[in-house]
User: Fold these one by one.
Assistant:
Number 1:
Amino acid sequence: MPIIQSREVTAAARLDNVRYAIRDLACVADEVIAQGHKVLPLNVGDPLNFDFQTPPHIIEAAYKAMRDGKNGYAPSPGIPEALEAIRGEAARKGITTVRDVFVTSGVSETVDLCISALVNPGEDILTPRPDYPLYSAVLCKLGIALNAYDLNEDDAWQPELADIERKLTPRTRAIVLINPNNPTGSLCSREMLEKIADLARRHNLVVFSDEIYDKLILPDSNGDATTPHIAFAAVAPDVPCITFGGMSKNYLVPGWRIGWGIVSGDAAAIKPYTEGIHRLLRARLCANHPEQYAIKPALEGPQDHLVEVKRKLRSRRDLTQKWCESTPRVSCVAPRGAFYAFPKIDIPESDEVFVKELIRQKHVMVVHGSGFGQKPGTQHFRIVFLPDEKTLTRAYAGIADFIHNRYPTK
Ligand SMILES: Cc1ncc(COP(=O)(O)O)c(C=O)c1O
């Protein structure tokens, strides 16, 4: 009689707090699809699901690398020509104190690696609330308690400095900025970056500045495009900082898994930490190899696709904002970057119930604000405004109708 191991294999308890907002919703969407309906997906930030195309010269570069036999392991930090191109990009971003650069399998790996190389048990890092859920997932994985600071909706979702000061402990090692932000679409002002730099200096913090959407900046609703993206490391050249960047969003290749980190700040201060990062870079061998040959052509070649991407995003952002402004119980800080809007909803039940019922009744899928760890007592949902205007109009009509029927106007 063969022995059959049938005892349940439980997952590590430290994963209990890892949020699965999008996965939970997928179960509800599957129910609806099984009933024969089509679901309108306004939940996944992948431009390639919609009418956006990868620039052909980038595809050519990766294809050529494969044909040329660049299919073995790459050097752990990345191939030299990609590293040089990333240094050039750092210079264009105004970062003058670059100490190191390295290539990763997507910004997702940069996040994991930079946090893992820094934080000891009992220490913490400050993450924004709401946040991109990977940050809290990585912290849970490492057994590090969450220490979230609020973004202030009444101040265009800028970090709330007083809350940061309140949350700082002697064991806080770093602060995460996501700029432009997912899920709010907000941009950090120069004044705010300067204040955060000041705080980092006073408390010896490393700054993780996630700038994966830095080329997707939209003009404000008056068409004023003068607010450029400002890199944190350009404002604070002395502060130990890792700027996170990548190809997924700006160059429309999320499936390639190419990201990077730019290390800046005082050379002596950042050295031991950089060595720790390199230990982890070596341990995981390398990032995807042939795709790294597309980094230089992407960063230094034609940027024409961005004009078209931003034209579409601006029109879809404006449509989204107009809908938010004209729909009872909905209000929204106008997004200035990336492709997300994070409207507030004034409803007498949780935003999770709202979102699940919306999928069931109107077959439109957005993500509940609580899935991003929002401020308690508030309700929001995140819209991905990547679909074309016709699809968005249909989705918004469905959401407005749902709100009207479920919550009779006060
Ligand atoms: C703020 C933010 N950081 C990092 C990532 C991960 O990006 P990548 O595809 O490079 O792993 C995302 C993806 O949506 C994101 O929104």
Number 2:
Amino acid sequence: MASISVYRQSANSTLRENVADLHSRRRSYAASTTFAFKSSFLGKRPLFLHSARKTLARPGLGSADYSHSNPITASCHTFDVVIIGAGIIGLTIARQLLVGSDLSVAVVDKAVPCSGATGAGQGYIWMVHKTPGSDTWDLTMRSHKLWKMLAEHINDQGLNPLQVLGWKKTGSLLIGRTAEELVVLKERVKQLSEAGLRAEYLSSSDLLLEEPALLVSEDSGAAFLPDDCQLDAACTVAYIEKVNRHFASKGRYAEFYHDPVMCLLRSSSTGEVEGIQTSKNTLYGKKAIVVAAGCWSGSLMHDLLREEDIVLDVPVKPRKGHLLVLENFKSLKLNHGSMEMGYVSHQDLTLCSGLADHGKNLSISMTASTDIAGNLVLGSSRQFAGFNTEVDESIIDRIWARAAEFFPKLRNLSLTDFIKDRKVRVGLRPYMPDGKPVIGPVPGLSNLFLAAGHEGGGLSMALGTAEMVADMVLQNSLKVDSAPFSVQGRCC
Ligand SMILES: Cc1cc2nc3c(=O)[nH]c(=O)nc-3n(C[C@H](O)[C@H](O)[C@H](O)COP(=O)(O)OP(=O)(O)OC[C@H]3O[C@@H](n4cnc5c(N)ncnc54)[C@H](O)[C@@H]3O)c2cc1C
């Protein structure tokens, strides 16, 4: 792995402030925009749409200085790579290019980091619910290796990965409660062990010893992966933003937030994608434009290519999820992260096309963990409800009730008692019907790349995805076969 430049925190409180800032920015989605960026090119340009425009001479980065805080209006900037989307996927791709090459990078978002699915994520960096040999297996394994290396690197820098990323080796429990589920769990443990992971099957008595708060019967058992980890999405994003911003002072990085992408800029002579037009800026990407816009990637690509001669359908759909966070929760102590066996099928549930009642697409399965701040995090729901992100209290009640089936101590408590000490996180997972992300160049537009559709595994697969995209842009050999994720054959 390339050497990593780390922006050192002067104190952990700085990071906490940044995380708090991320949360407050998430709340004030529509607030006005300012960002620390001063254009290398100060001219203003007319807005050009699609291929109708003529190719223009593009300014170089020259003596760029991004260290001042200057709100800017519609102006023109050139980078090597422009990334659309500041979720975990876009931000980690930026980081990988910044630390692993000398390219300049811009990240554009219609809102701010963590305003998409990333801000809702539970943070499981887990293998226990993955299937050896599946299309996403190698990418996930590689990605987890990179997360562990990053945590070690942070540690080697004299920082605490727990404070910086919310990184904890909690171990994971995939819990079964019927004789049929236990058969499947035993087979899963065998497969995971054969794939080289430390995996144990826990009988009901062993399970009770590992996680005494669980309700266990003779039909209970679990697959236990002691090396599975978790992170805190907000902490991790704050850290990655800091690393990326370190390169701003070197003239290699800029952020354009609250600035939705409107259209592509294509060369009239070669047809190559040269850049994008946002609501406020014209951004050229000399080497690549990467669309990492989560569940919005399909509609965005549709809009971007609407007047083009290219037929591309990225079938990514928003899959809404609720998480319940009970702050500083003392009534339940968890040793590990938990997930009910039903999660695996709940994750694989396919979209019923044409179903009028979206409520029928709702599924809830128990996940439970304790985060870095001592909050109990309970999940999760999955449903197809369009791009709506309103909290549905009836879903929260069902998440609570499901958790109480597994953790009897919760039955003595009423959710209404926690009304002041609870938060609900809602996010739209980028769902792909075939269950795997789409990563790679768009056929016919070789410098336009897609990296989207990670559904419930985007935090887990982020660093592997980032490495793959960066290697594609840099034309390096790939560490993981990208064929299962190709755009060709799945979107066109
Ligand atoms: C409840 C819940 C629990 C989860 N738990 C886990 C977990 O434990 N482990 C795990 O690995 N994953 C988990 N996930 C999944 C994970 O959060 C997602 O897979 C991941 O965050 C997707 O990241 P992303 O960057 O692709 O998308 P997002 O985070 O949604 O980011 C996409 C960004 O694109 C921007 N954008 C969209 N359109 C435009 C435009 N036109 N112009 C500019 N910007 C645009 C958006 O504003 C957004 O910021 C969970 C998700 C949910 C909802």
